[in-house]
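User: What would this chain look like folded?
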Amino acid sequence: MNIHEYQAKQLLGKYGVAVPRGKIAFTPQEAEEAAKEFLNSGVCVVKAQIHAGGRGKAGGVKLSKSRDVVVANAKEIIGRVLVTHQTGPAGKEVKKVLIEEGCEIAKEFYLGMVVDRGTGRVAVMASTEGGVEIEEVAAKTPEKILKECIDPAVGLQPYQARNLAFALELNRIDKALVNKAVKFITALYTAFVESDCSMAEINPLVITKSGDIIALDAKISFDDNALFRHKDIEGMRDLDEEDPKEVEASRFNLNYVALDGNIGCMVNGAGLAMATMDIIKLSGGAPANFLDVGGGANKDQVTAAFKILMSDTKVKAVLVNIFGGIMRCDIIAEGIIAAAKVVGIRAPLVVRLQGTNVEQGRKLLAESGLNVITADKMDEAADKAVKAAKGNKP
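Assistant: Here's the prediction, encoded as structure tokens.
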């Protein structure tokens, strides 16, 4: 789950991470009221709040030196559709802005934390290339990315934070900055672990001319599987920023990701789902989604999954690819039949069932009266789905 920048800063502030003062505004009038508090420094910033990076390059971040300019910038940004490298060509509509006090920047850095699946540890990354996307730094100058992996048994150690501070050469700017950096990194790590984050990114992390270390921007995402422990964080979810189909899928504990193709996929198991999408591409088609119903889905979950697939207007054909291990093929068949009765089947349906109770599942579908295209092998199923999506008879 992702949250907005202003929410991330509110959360980090509770853990002692230094962030600029700011207020959220939904209208230009609210932006003007907020600016009264933050223009004492001579400048404040109007920042679009969407779940995407690259806002500044897309015109979503504006410096403002007066209340009139704040109002004008808020009017320009609110309601605008921002298109960045992370939004896709459709972009995202801005419905609110963060009005934030300005600061005098002396130096910019990058600081991030992610869960490294390879080591099973939190990896802390830092770079002197603040303000630049870390992917770009990794591609062009990977040697400028510094990393410390944290042993979960003992947590972040002070020497590791100092290693990063010295590697960033903060001691050459001001020796006092080393201790400030250790405090900042430690506070960020505490917030990361206690909030069950999957990613936290401060870009840029800035040193001000007065010698403070501040998170000028903040991006945080959380492990969905741990949200039951954080109802306050779950309450920060902005459903307007998420695909409605993905939100609906999460209600039924389904793993769903919307894609750009026109062949809907319903599969059990992430590995089989990835293989199914690959074979659809090899057959000349494009998947409309990643949908893993899991190994223990029940009839209601399968029915919900099918409804989600049918709600996508891009879907021209549906491929159900089930290997019955823990998941039984007859349960899948029952779910498909139940969903068909509620929402109907408006697109050709290709079903490949193998494994536990496969004969029962096939019998249920055959006797259901549904127009189902069957297949025994994956490549056969993919070929039939691609042909059906193109309007050809499989």
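The two ends are 39 Å apart (CA to CA). If you want, I can go into more detail on any region.
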